[in-house]
Amino acid sequence: MTVPPLTAPTAAGASAGSTGARGLDLRMPVLALVAWGAALVALLAPPWWLFVLGAAVLVRAWQRRRRGRAVLTLLAWALAGAAVAGSALLRADGVRSGPVAELAREQAVVRVELVTTSDPAVRPGRFGDLVVVRTRVEEVTGRGVRREVRAPVLVLGDRSWRAVPLGSRVVATGRLDTPRTDDLAGVLAPRGPPEVTDHPGPLLDGAAALRASIRHAVADRAAAPRALVPALVDGDDAAMPEGLVEDFRTAGLTHLLAVSGTNLTLVVGCLLLLARWAGVRARGLVVVGLLGVAGFLLLARAEPSVVRAAAMGAVGLLGLGQHGRRHGTRALGAAVLLLLVWDPWMALSLGFALSALATAGILWLAPGWRDRMARWLPRWAAEALAVPLAAQLACTPLVAALSGQVSLVAVAANLLAAPAVGPATVLGLLGGVVGLVWPAVGEAVAAPGAWSAAWIVAVAERSADVPTAAAAWPTSAPALALLTGLVVLLALLVGVVVARRWATLAAVALVVVVLLVPLPTPGWPPRGWVMVACDVGQGDGLVLHAGPGAAVVVDAGPDPRAIDRCLDRLGVRRVPLVVLTHFHADHVDGLAGVLGSREVGAVEVTGLAEPASGARLVAQVAAAAGVPVRRAAYGEARELGPLRWQVVAPAGAPPAGSGSPPNDASVVLLVESRGVRLLLMGDEEDDSQTRLLRETGGVRADVLKVAHHGSASQDPALVRATGARLAVISVGADNDYGHPAPSLLALLRDAGMRVVRTDQQGDVAVVADPGLGVETRGRLGP
């Protein structure tokens, strides 16, 4: 068997003109896979594995020494793997073993001189908002020694850091700590405001001014379009409402909220059209294109995700041209290799994997489907249909592995949104450019872009509301292998179907019926369920079964849509009581989703009306729905259908010196249903947990709803005193708090509890059976 040339047959449905007679040369894609594997081994495995793999390649090359092209191919693969592995090892060693990493392991107080490498981003923290900034430390003084370094550090500062723009040179003092990811040398908690010693250069200042002008050009529009236009143009999604982000996820439109290859294609394509109109030709267009790419990277920030998106967008654009599949395949392999040499940590990025898969789908599937549909559709329409379909299909197995679901509306939503993406992006950018000179005219130019963004928002919201927007899919290896096989089969069938107008229309009609007619969800809710912890993200949303179509709801999560959908899936039409354990947003902001379309009896709350904004929101939402609000009484015991419960905390004011009085004032319920005892802890911290244990002598339960989403602030004695067999943690995926804490998970395991989590398993149902069963429905976010 010889190695070169590696070729593949034409993808399903491709026409001969799409690929040429010689087929696909797969040497560059294989080279990219070798580089990817080398990066993974270098970052995750012991270093000796690299020597084993390198020796295997050299032995293979020696065996093929008389076949010149085969040897050259093998040596090229080995060289690519060595280049990426070397880059990864050198970068990782520099991050993990430098002076900054050593000081971080010692949790030393240091003085640093740093340069900010990202825009400040506000994130909610345990004691208030945090400002997160990625930086490059260039000088560190700690333990009495001053050193010049070059180390990536994450700064977690107060709100004074919001005014520090990208590219600023800053002096700060604070405590270093170890990071949770290997691409950082440390995490700095600064003391006091930053001391800015040098501001960004004129290029970064100009980019910042343009970003601000884009925001100003749509500032008078409705909240959703006002937030979406900057996200489309330059990835500035800081103002996107959380509920709308969830709708974009469900609809398969999340890629629009981050800088993607589409953004680059639209911006640079528009620039090239203007250049052609102005008479620029040949090499001049190349120069204009390169300047456009450079300007786009400057505007959107040359972070790894942006550079990756730009590279994949260029490859995808190349793939739709003449001989695009052959040229694009080579370009994809080269792009993956160069990106991994530049930043080896991309090998661990799910976004990188999804971008590569989507681009591969566009290269290998879209041209053939487009050419077949072009027999009965205009070419532009055929391309608009083929590209999102190919990208979505290629990414489906990986998305299912990550989310536990297969989106059924993603292709349709992308097709409906696609015509508005270009106008929203290009006009938003033009409005910002014109607004730098004449703000009023800039607003007028951007107005149609905002209207287009409003259409995209409407598509996301309506798609997310479709009864069968997503189907749960197991994440086990056999289930994912089955899904991959189904995707391959579907790829083969699509080429046959889209070649015929009536077959295509019949397939579209079938998909519409599947989407609009609610399909039964076998086994959900499971028979004998007593409680469901809804997957509401980083928050709590618990549902206690109170009879046919009825439930008591404990907390409503941060998003009305998430809790509303969970209750719909459970068939809950009546809610005799809603208990809000405390007034933090991740427990009360979803209240409107409970009250909106159901018969609700009353809302019970804690006695501490903090934060005041949460208390006001609850009062306003309840008043609008005509639902009374009352205070939960300590010690009160009540009964409803199969449910009995008692309020076991709070007994009074939060403990003196409480780090978070609202959390420590959480309503804690002891519930019994069908022989199962459940302790629902709210967000109580360790001090109030200790008081609860002291006052009750220990609350025995079969199920423990872990306090505060699995934070480290737990009283081990109380946890063990419950004697629970099952621990349920309601927590958001990839949250910024590190929940659930490793120390808490170790405590639960040591106490002999089985642990289930909504971030990993989606909706979690506790079932009353002799083994205290648990059933899950799968995560509904990507």
Can you walk through the features of this model?
With 782 residues, the protein is an alpha+beta fold. The chain folds into 4 domains: 7-96; 99-200, Nucleic acid-binding proteins (OB fold (Dihydrolipoamide Acetyltransferase, E2P), Beta Barrel); 207-490, no CATH class; 529-776, 4-Layer Sandwich (Metallo-beta-lactamase, Chain A). The chain has 28 helices and 26 strands. The strands form 5 sheets. The protein has an 8-stranded mixed β-sheet with strand order 17-16-15-14-13-12-25-26. A 7-stranded mixed β-sheet has the order 18-19-20-21-22-23-24. A 5-stranded mixed beta barrel has the order 3-5-6-8-7. β4 (121-125) and β5 form a beta hairpin. α15 (379-403) packs antiparallel against α18 and α16 runs antiparallel to α17 (439-464). The longest helix has 30 residues, at 68-97. Mean pLDDT is 81; it is low at 1-22.
List the topology elements.
Layout: E1 7-8, H1 16-19, E2 24-25, H2 27-44, H3 48-63, H4 68-97, H5 99-105, E3 109-116, E4 121-125, E5 128-142, E6 145-157, E7 169-177, E8 186-190, E9 195-198, H6 202-217, H7 223-234, H8 242-251, H9 261-277, H10 283-300, H11 304-319, H12 324-342, H13 350-364, H14 366-373, H15 379-403, E10 405-407, H16 410-437, H17 439-464, E11 470-472, H18 477-497, H19 501-516, E12 529-533, E13 542-545, E14 550-554, H20 560-570, E15 574-580, H21 585-588, H22 591-595, E16 599-605, H23 612-625, E17 629-631, E18 637-640, E19 643-649, H24 661-664, E20 668-673, E21 676-680, H25 686-696, E22 703-705, H26 716-722, E23 726-729, H27 742-750, E24 754-757, H28 758-761, E25 764-767, E26 773-776
Parallel strand pairs: 6-8, 14-15, 15-16, 16-17, 21-22, 22-23, 23-24
Antiparallel strand pairs: 1-2, 3-5, 3-7, 4-5, 5-6, 7-8, 7-9, 10-11, 12-13, 12-25, 13-14, 18-19, 19-20, 20-21, 25-26
Helix pairs in contact: 2-4, 2-12, 3-4, 4-12, 6-16, 6-17, 7-16, 7-17, 8-17, 9-10, 9-11, 9-16, 11-12, 11-13, 12-13, 13-15, 14-15, 15-16, 15-18, 16-17
